[in-house]
Amino acid sequence: MRIVLVGPPGAGKGTQAAFLAKNLSIPHISTGDLFRANISQGTDLGKQARAFMDAGQLVPDEVTIAMAKDRMSQPDAENGFLLDGFPRNVGQAVALDEMLHSEGVELDAVLDLEVPEDEVVKRIAGRRICRNDSAHVFHVTYNAAKTEGVCDVCGGELYQRDDDTEETVRTRLEVYHTQTEPIIDYYRSQGLVATISALGKVTDVTERAMEALKKSDEV
Predict the structure, then answer these.
(1) Is 161 marked active-site?
(2) Annotated catalytic residue 2
(3) Alpha-carbon distance 119 to 125, whole Å?
């Protein structure tokens, strides 16, 4: 299957993408991974992206699209993929359609992970990261440290990242509503969108998504 995963920050896209890709035996292709891979490997596209990022500018659509096209052309994506973070706007969605049509294939489904805005703020603003190891992540409500401000794993200091404050989260949500959310209507007009509640246990959300994909495959 060829799937696009859409949702606001804090919806759990990365987590769901990993589970779904494993269940469906297709690669999980995320924009963040594409950037990191191209930059670390020193590709021409990576150098272009790095130049914009170092200048504090957004990476242009054409560079992001070229990275995605290159990744989707690799052998492991021949029979499908799950896109996470791409397309990020309608222009990228149109470019993706053109890419797929040129290969004689098309998207099977667009999964829209739906989360109330206040829940998004609660999820992200409550995160606390260990200064010693960023892999140690806690949450003041859902996964609180035994001792406030202290990592259970290594005893390091827990802190809130600058981009996890409520003000920053609400700004990120505005960007999502303005730039990314319109692609849902774009794909809905093609009959591809399945809206999934991203509330509850991770496994429950995955089950809802798999059920929606099963239905879309039967249409």
Answers:
(1) yes
(2) no
(3) 10
Residue showing tokens 């981009």 = 163
Told to judge if 88 belongs to the known catalytic residues of this protein, a careful annotator would answer: yes
Q: Where would I find the H helices in 55-89?
A: 61-72
* Token digits of residue 8: 């606001």
Task: Please write the tens of the pLDDT for every residue from 102-145.
Answer: 999 999 999 999 999 999 999 999 999 999 999 999 999 999 99
Q: What is the mean pLDDT of the chain?
A: 94
172 is an active site residue: yes
36 catalytically annotated: no
Q: Which of 71, 88, 128, 208 is catalytic?
A: 88
Quote the DSSP letter at residue 40.
H
